[in-house]
Amino acid sequence: MDLAARLQQLEDLVREAKSMPLSSSALLNRDEVLEILTEMKEGLPEEIKQARWVVKDREELLAKARRDAERMVEEARAEQLRLASHEEVVKRAQAEAERILAEAGEEARRVRLEAEDYVDAKLAQLEAALKRISEELGATGQYLARTVEQVEAGRTKLRGGSPAQQEFAPEETGEG
Asked: What are the residues whose beta carbons fall under 8 Å from the beta carbon of 29, sequence distance 6 or more?
């Protein structure tokens, strides 16, 4: 019989006990009450052990849950830092890539302009030499004059518009 049942038995015994005349006292069988109390004492340690086991088990479960929760929070924080760090690395890499592309574009533009200036200077020298030779040859320098015109057209094209405009412009048809 468990502790609650023994307590109920003791309560029933007190309620059913005969009252003393002109008093609130009751007559109880001492042996019967002592026997119930002894059974309760004997049952008490087992009940307490069970209650302690339940409390201990609950505390262990709560402690494990706390540890698990703390571990998950730490893992989440670490993952958040890792992702933030990764995101920052990506942003820095993108910024560096954009800077490099801008520098490369500027360097390409500078080299292209230098090359165009160099070619224009060489074509100017060639044009001058061809004109001089054409003048010296007179009438026989007719083919040379056409070449001079082509050189002049090339220089004009070189000085005009952007490379994209030149690239997509309709090609001029030259003679000879």
From this structure: 13
Nearest to 40 by CA among 66, 71, 19, 11: 11
Task: Yes or no: say if 146 and 175 are a contact pair by the CB < 8 Å rule.
Answer: yes
Vertex 151, ends 146 and 153: CA angle to 5°?
95
pLDDT in tens, 106-127: 999 999 889 888 888 888 888 8
pLDDT, one tens digit per residue, over 40-90 is 877 777 777 788 888 888 899 999 999 999 999 999 999 988 888 888 888
**Residue 58 Cα distances to 45, 48, 51, 172, angstroms:** 19, 15, 10, 92
Please say whether the beta carbons of 13 and 40 come within 8 A.
Answer: no
Nearest to 2 by CA among 46, 66, 35, 57: 46
The domain limits of the chain are: 3-160
**pTM, 2 dp:** 0.39
